[in-house]
Write a structure and sequence with these properties.
With about 160 residues, this protein is an alpha+beta fold. Helix content is about 30%, strand content about 20%. The strands form 2 sheets. The chain has a 3-stranded mixed sheet, with helices on one face. A two-stranded antiparallel sheet has the order 1-2. A hairpin with a 2-residue loop joins strand 1 and strand 2.
Length: about 160
């Protein structure tokens, strides 16, 4: 019996077979990105008692900024991020303050009074105020915040801090 020889064409076809299987991908279809919620967030250091916590808008949403010293938080918040915070990608959605700032606390409710129309505040700007106020009054406790101005109350009042 005479041994069979493999022809060069058949040998080339056998050599290309694994490459063809890889290109075929075994029937696995590509998919789009599937959204499963917002990114995880954490506060790396708890705020010290002798610090002021402000909330600015970062690359991934609302983020706390801890500044040393105890100072009135609302004027600092409306002044916006400092140069180091801006360099880190922080910004604010709050407008320039045109009137006075007032804050009152009663029965688990904080009222923030701005001497200007607040109906145009974006939801993110309202959350900046609410979270900063909650940190300054209750250090993360459960209080609700109402923002009042010269016009109607803000559209999301009363607010809780949900970062």
């Amino acid at each position: 019996m005479r041994p069979r020889t493999i022809r060069p064409r058949a040998l080339a076809a056998l050599a290309l077979l694994p490459a063809g299987l890889l290109v075929g991908g075994c029937g696995i279809q590509s998919t789009d990105v599937i959204a499963v919620g917002g990114p995880a967030s954490a506060q790396a250091l708890p705020p010290r008692v002798d610090s002021t916590v402000l909330y600015f808008v970062g690359p991934d949403g609302l983020m706390p900024v801890i500044r040393p010293g105890v100072r009135p938080s609302l004027p600092l918040l409306f002044a916006g991020p400092d140069k180091n915070e801006k360099a880190a990608g922080m910004r604010t959605e709050l407008p320039q303050i045109q009137g006075g700032l007032k804050m009152g606390v009663a029965d688990g409710m904080v009222t923030v009074g701005l001497g200007q129309d607040v109906s145009g505040l974006t939801p993110l700007a309202q959350r900046q105020i609410a979270c900063t106020v909650v940190q300054s009054v209750a250090r993360g406790g459960s209080v609700r915040v109402t923002i009042l101005g010269t016009g109607a109350p803000s559209s999301l009042s009363p607010l809780a801090c949900e970062t």
